[in-house]
From TrEMBL:
Residues 253-265 have a biased composition (Basic and acidic residues). GO terms for molecular function: 3'-5'-RNA exonuclease activity; nucleic acid binding. SMART domains: EXOIII. InterPro entries: Oligoribonuclease (IPR022894), Ribonucl_H (IPR013520), RNaseH-like_sf (IPR012337), RNaseH_sf (IPR036397). Belongs to the oligoribonuclease family. Residues 9-187 form the Exonuclease domain. This is Ribonuclease H-like protein. The keyword Nuclease applies. It comes from Aureobasidium pullulans (Black yeast). GO terms for cellular component: mitochondrion. Residues 190-220, 241-265 are annotated as: Disordered. The lineage of its organism: Eukaryota, Fungi, Dikarya, Ascomycota, Pezizomycotina. Residues 196-206 have a biased composition (Acidic residues). Keywords: Exonuclease, Hydrolase, Nuclease.
Length: 265
């Protein structure tokens, strides 16, 4: 049975934790934005909360979290906050239900969002995850696919990350990155029109396994891919530049690694 177009919303969540050990670490802060299926944010304010932690809990953090959360001010905010994890879980679910009234329809979305989900499936956040669909939309997975299969020109224009490790800033970056890939690969949800027969006939392929013909030019099968693919890539990049996307960290990653997209982080 063919897949049908989904019109259900996406629930974008980013969490900052005391660490990544599910047996002892906890969520310090989280931010949630909800978009429709076409990545339009439904509420510009979103939902954001900082959960109270004791000094003993925060002192038990590892070196990286201690330095990072201390630098952003999150550690101090956790000490000052009066909100419990239970309160935040209740508020978050109510916020999601306001924009996603149907159970098991909306998908959790974000970057490497399975890591956030691993904490959110635990109490007291379990009801939140039970309200959402079991599938997720992971922008990091799209990025990894792009680094392997997309034209280099598209990778060069991919959005950079500030690396703030602040829930609100990080999740808004995730949405922006998803919009970039939407325009680069999915053409805003539209299906490309078929070429007119007259245009399709201008490039004849003879079907010979050892060589093919584009117009009057003898080329090998791989050259066909390169010639056609380069044109499509250039069109895609020009379209993205028109939308305001410029050279960012994708270009820098490729430059550092001699143009090897597989080594670009």
């Amino acid at each position: 049975m063919p897949e049908s177009r989904s019109k259900h919303p996406l629930v974008w969540i980013d969490c900052e934790m005391t660490g990544l050990d599910l047996s002892k670490d906890t969520v310090m802060s989280l931010c949630c934005f909800i978009t429709d299926a076409q990545l339009n944010i439904l509420d510009d304010q979103g939902y954001e909360a900082v959960i109270h932690h004791s000094k003993e809990q925060l002192d038990a953090m590892g070196e990286w979290c201690t330095n990072q959360h201390g630098k952003t001010g999150l550690t101090a905010q956790c000490l000052e906050s009066e909100k419990t994890a239970e309160t935040v879980a209740t508020e978050l679910l109510e916020y999601i239900q306001k924009y996603c009234p149907e159970r098991k329809k909306a998908l959790l979305a974000g970057n490497t969002v399975h890591a956030d989900r691993a904490f959110l499936v635990q109490q007291p956040y379990t009801p939140v995850m039970k309200w959402l669909h079991h599938r997720i939309l992971d922008v990091s997975a799209i990025k990894e696919a792009a680094k392997r299969w997309a034209p280099v020109e598209v990778i060069k224009k991919s959005p950079g990350k500030a690396g703030k490790h602040e829930a609100r800033a990080d999740i808004l970056e995730s949405i922006a990155e998803a919009r970039y890939y939407q325009k680069a690969f999915f053409q805003n949800g539209t299906v490309p029109k078929e070429e007119p027969e007259a245009e399709a006939e201008t490039a004849e392929v003879d079907g010979d396994a050892h060589g093919s013909i584009i117009g009057d030019k003898d080329v090998k099968p791989r050259e066909i891919t390169q010639e056609v693919g380069a044109g499509e890539a250039q069109t895609t990049v020009q379209s993205l530049e028109a939308e305001g996307f410029g050279a960012t960290s994708g270009q820098q990653d490729l430059d550092r690694n001699g143009g090897n997209r597989d080594l670009a982080s």
